[in-house]
Write a structure and sequence with these properties.
By secondary structure, the chain is an all-alpha fold. It contains five helices and no strands.
Length: about 130
């Protein structure tokens, strides 16, 4: 008797130790590094733009999510800098940091399970 799991093809992990071979994972990590070394986030969004038409549908959904996260975060960051003279600017800056961390963590979590990102997230946390 054969077990059903014996015939299922093994799926390669979407999160691996080979960071340079896994571009969606690398982009999420660059977003995290971007809090300390700001150009890293810019490199991440460029990688997402370059690779968004390639790869599997799951990878493409992550690229679109990463691009959306970058540009929406950029808008929040610009608004918080403009409003930095008021308390609301500092609160928005803290919100932007939390928002970016949560979205990147959820993206990595979905990537590790091989799940695509939803298309209707918008400004939500993911």
């Amino acid at each position: 008797m054969s077990n059903a799991n014996d015939t299922a093809p093994a799926r390669p992990p979407l999160i691996s130790g080979d960071i340079l071979g896994n571009i969606p994972q690398l982009v999420y990590l660059l977003y995290f590094i971007g809090f300390v070394f700001h150009p890293a986030a810019l490199v991440g969004v460029v990688l997402a733009f370059v690779n968004r038409n390639e790869g599997t549908p799951v990878e493409r959904s992550h690229y679109e999510f990463q691009i959306s996260t970058f540009w929406r975060g950029f808008v929040m960051l610009a608004a918080s800098i403009i409003l930095a003279f008021f308390v609301v600017g500092w609160l928005l800056l803290v919100f932007w940091m939390i928002w970016t961390i949560v979205r990147s963590a959820k993206g990595l979590s979905n990537l590790s399970r091989g799940q695509p990102m939803r298309e209707d997230i918008g400004w939500g946390f993911g």
